[in-house]
Amino acid sequence: MIEESLRRYLDKVSLESKELEKCRKIIQPKPKKPQPQEKLSPYRLEGFECDRCGDEYVEDTAYSYAPSLNEINDYKTYCSNCVVEG
User: What is the pLDDT, as a whole number, of residue 10?
Assistant: First the structure.
Protein backbone atom coordinates (compact mmCIF):
# COMPACT_ATOMS: atom_id res chain seq x y z
CA MET A 1 0.00 0.00 0.00
CA ILE A 2 2.73 2.50 0.96
CA GLU A 3 4.82 1.46 -2.01
CA GLU A 4 1.90 2.04 -4.36
CA SER A 5 1.28 5.52 -2.90
CA LEU A 6 4.96 6.38 -3.20
CA ARG A 7 5.04 5.22 -6.83
CA ARG A 8 1.99 7.35 -7.69
CA TYR A 9 3.47 10.36 -5.93
CA LEU A 10 6.80 10.00 -7.76
CA ASP A 11 5.00 9.60 -11.09
CA LYS A 12 2.98 12.75 -10.41
CA VAL A 13 6.08 14.74 -9.40
CA SER A 14 7.93 13.50 -12.49
CA LEU A 15 5.05 14.50 -14.75
CA GLU A 16 4.80 17.96 -13.15
CA SER A 17 8.52 18.59 -13.46
CA LYS A 18 8.41 17.65 -17.15
CA GLU A 19 5.57 20.12 -17.70
CA LEU A 20 7.48 22.84 -15.84
CA GLU A 21 10.56 22.11 -17.92
CA LYS A 22 8.59 23.07 -21.04
CA CYS A 23 7.76 26.47 -19.52
CA ARG A 24 11.25 27.30 -18.29
CA LYS A 25 13.08 29.96 -20.25
CA ILE A 26 16.80 30.48 -19.89
CA ILE A 27 17.74 34.15 -20.14
CA GLN A 28 21.27 34.74 -21.34
CA PRO A 29 23.16 37.59 -19.62
CA LYS A 30 23.85 40.61 -21.79
CA PRO A 31 27.51 41.25 -22.53
CA LYS A 32 28.75 44.26 -20.63
CA LYS A 33 29.98 47.17 -22.69
CA PRO A 34 32.91 49.09 -21.31
CA GLN A 35 31.70 52.27 -19.70
CA PRO A 36 33.18 55.46 -21.12
CA GLN A 37 35.33 57.50 -18.82
CA GLU A 38 33.88 60.64 -17.31
CA LYS A 39 36.87 62.76 -18.33
CA LEU A 40 38.79 63.14 -21.55
CA SER A 41 42.11 61.34 -21.85
CA PRO A 42 44.94 62.33 -24.19
CA TYR A 43 46.10 59.82 -26.83
CA ARG A 44 48.98 60.30 -29.25
CA LEU A 45 47.67 59.41 -32.71
CA GLU A 46 49.34 59.31 -36.13
CA GLY A 47 46.29 60.87 -37.74
CA PHE A 48 42.76 61.77 -36.71
CA GLU A 49 39.88 64.08 -37.50
CA CYS A 50 38.35 66.14 -34.70
CA ASP A 51 34.71 65.18 -34.27
CA ARG A 52 33.80 68.70 -33.13
CA CYS A 53 35.51 71.05 -35.64
CA GLY A 54 36.30 68.56 -38.42
CA ASP A 55 39.98 69.55 -38.77
CA GLU A 56 42.48 66.80 -39.60
CA TYR A 57 45.64 66.30 -37.56
CA VAL A 58 48.81 64.30 -38.18
CA GLU A 59 50.96 63.01 -35.34
CA ASP A 60 49.15 65.03 -32.70
CA THR A 61 47.33 64.52 -29.42
CA ALA A 62 43.70 63.54 -29.59
CA TYR A 63 41.40 63.71 -26.59
CA SER A 64 38.73 61.09 -26.10
CA TYR A 65 36.47 59.42 -23.55
CA ALA A 66 37.75 56.03 -24.76
CA PRO A 67 38.92 53.78 -21.90
CA SER A 68 41.98 52.69 -23.91
CA LEU A 69 43.80 53.32 -27.17
CA ASN A 70 42.51 50.00 -28.51
CA GLU A 71 38.93 51.28 -28.23
CA ILE A 72 39.47 54.82 -29.49
CA ASN A 73 37.75 54.13 -32.84
CA ASP A 74 34.50 53.48 -30.96
CA TYR A 75 34.53 56.95 -29.36
CA LYS A 76 34.66 60.53 -30.57
CA THR A 77 38.03 62.29 -30.66
CA TYR A 78 38.70 65.97 -30.14
CA CYS A 79 41.65 68.25 -30.87
CA SER A 80 43.32 70.32 -28.17
CA ASN A 81 41.66 73.53 -29.47
CA CYS A 82 38.16 72.11 -29.08
CA VAL A 83 38.91 70.67 -25.65
CA VAL A 84 39.99 74.09 -24.38
CA GLU A 85 36.95 75.77 -25.97
CA GLY A 86 34.43 73.13 -24.91
Answer: 81
